[in-house]
Amino acid sequence: MKKAGLTVMLALCLLLFPAVCLGGTDWQALKTEYFTVFYPSGLEEVAREVLQILEYYRPEVEKLTGNRQYHLPVVIDDTGILPNGMANPFYYYVHLFWYPPKAGMLGTVEDWNALVAVHEYTHILQMTNAGKGPKVLCNIFGNLFSPNVWVPCWVIEGITVYSESRLSNYQGRLNDGKFDAYIGARVAADRFPSILDATFSPHEFQLEGIYTHGGLFFDYLAQTYGEEKLTEFFTVRGSSLGALDQSAEEVFGKSFPLLWEEWKEYETERFKDFTIDGERITTDGWYISNPVVAAGEQDEMLLCYIREKEIKTGPGRSYSSAEIVVRNLATQEEKVAVATTSSFSLPLKVRGHKLYYGVYELKPGYDNALNSGYGAYAELREKDLRSGKDRLVLAGDLRAYELLPDGSVLYATALKEGFGSKLYLYHPEAGSRLLFEVPYLIDEMAADGGRIVFSARKKGENNDLYLFTLETGEFTPLVTTAYGEYGITLAGDRLFFHANYQQVYGVYCYKLSTGQVYKMTTGNYATEPAYDETRGELYFVGLHAEGFDLYRQKAAFSPYQLPAPLPERGLSWAEKGIAVEAKPGGYGDNLRTLTPKMMLPYFSPLDDGYVAGLYFLGTDAIGHLPGYQIGFLYDSVAKRWGTDTLVLLNLFPPFFVNLGYLSFADRPFYLDFNYPFYNRLSPGLSQITVGLACSYGKGLGAELIPYTSLGFSYPGTRLNFQLQTPVEDLDYIGKDKRVGYYGGVEANRLLGKGELSLKVQGFIDPDNQNGVFPLIRGYREGLAAKKGAVATLEYSHPLSQVRAGNWRLSTYLEDLYASLFVDAAFPDEGQYQLAYGVELSQELKIACAWLTITLTPGVRLGFDRDGESFVHFFLGI
Fold first, then answer.
1. Which one of 133, 203, 680, 724 counts the least CB within 10 Å of its CB?
2. pTM of the model
């Protein structure tokens, strides 16, 4: 077995070099002095556009952040229908997801590539702005020592939201209107978010949290003190090792808490007359969306809508609830028609007793290493409200859909090789057929009375409304402005929609026969209209301090003149037509990013000495080698040098390999193969993972641990099963081999506002040279037996929301919890252990700039199997 383990290690090492060289043949690069853009095949046009955008806006971002960097790796990833981006200042790279968000996901979006590229580039320049002494430390140890990294998250995201909103009057979340409405709602409720709310993000509805608070706060600072003060702040902060408020006082003359109070006064005055139209008819808060008024089987009027929220049951533990609710408007009775563990990707529609909706789902095979090759797609599903049966209709990269009278489905997908959409017609018997490829990005569809209307956008513009001709593919403009029009629904001759005119969201109506536009609401926020023609009532989504809810009012049609465009801020990158000379690159450029990015000193005291040394850390940009460490350590007791090396390999995702060597360990070689065989978001079987962990030492031989895990997920319920079988050489103690069996199951159930959990572990490992039984509560020592089981039954519940803290001490008390528990350990022979009791724990958050550490100090009171009482104080991490 020793030879087998060593052979596996050597074979893998021999395979690593060609695997690295061959693993990235599908990736190419484009290079300038400032950027190296990596992209997989099929995304070259996106890569060229991103490079052109970054070069065009680079001087503006440099001016805002007071910093300049060179040779920044920018990776274009395909993650399916997920739009996002990320920046890593420590390993110095940016990842951008190519898929453009639908209108409303991140406000109104004229140009996704420009918004996400500038946002993430601002992150890099802001966080790597280091001067004087800190610059020397960064050059030696890496960007971990940049003072601008060690600021609260609302600072990090605030400046990027501000930066993305400078590109255009109609793009960026500060120009959208939703952030303003949220702050207005908090003012109206006399619950203005505190600086502690922004820093510690307590569990409550905060819209986009650090993005909202930070973006609006930095916008206020720029308006009040001048944009140049933002640049000065990051420059001063980059040269300071002192407290954050010292930098704020030097630049603004006041600490951040005082500046925050100024901002509060400003917003309180600005939104003193904040109102939402109509009568609030739901009280759930969080995220209510997509109301639909439809006739039921008995011609009763139904109101269907989506309800999503987060339910917190303990520190770091919460449940996501995503449901479709059907309300009978005559009786006001509600029932949950659909409950899922995924989230909704497509709008719901009702046809008779059939309800249609879309959810996100996962599968491997996408061109990315960041998500281990996994990406998201949409499943269009049909729920029979009469029988309760739920079936899959269609799956793919669906962006928008509509049900036609003949039973077919018209749907659109986004073009990957350029800007625009592909339009398909799906019929259950004939399958999908491509109709048209159009230069519009289609976000929504609505059909009624033979008419089909789209909310779609041209390249570089916001969403407008178009009448679509199915036979010819013609787009006829209906409502076109520089703002965004979407949230569409058709009711005969009336097209209802919402828009953010003058950065205030309201509901409007377009009469198809006359072309007249009517304004339906006058308050500070109203979206997603649904019209009940039989009662003459308008339903819509409104915003208050606790989230989104449904509102209702009598429909009033007031003629409205569409707004004139605002003065332009300047030509966009596309209008300017700037030329960028880029050199072609290849996978070798990615290998060059493997140079170490951080050097960290290490010291660990021993009983009669110490271990000390240096660690070098790095990664590649694409993510095929998502991390490595090389440690050079000295053991003062053994008086020898050693190494601690770890390499993570993601060359053939989702297959993942960890390879390590720790010279001071008894078995210094370590190898772990991990394969996530199955992943799914919807209810049912959620994951299957298989793996093999190996370790080897010359004196002890090899230990192999095959393992597997299975997970099941249902609304409010989670089940996880684990099994591993360690096999170990025992020649070093005169035995043949050790074979052990470890299995476990964990079941968690949302019960009321708390969580009921059951954990059971069983093990058979008679030749294990170490302890097998874990320590249970109420006992100081675990059982010595090598066979048996351990079980825990526990119910935890929030007791009180403390929500108090101290800015200077960077501490915050969030929630107080109580739990009832029963622990038991059963050996195959001898006496068992049993303990039961109650725990009280307080959630304590400590902010280390962007890093928030959550501790749960508490007290445990209980009894053991002999009736002896115990009181223990503990600190959970």
1. 133
2. 0.94
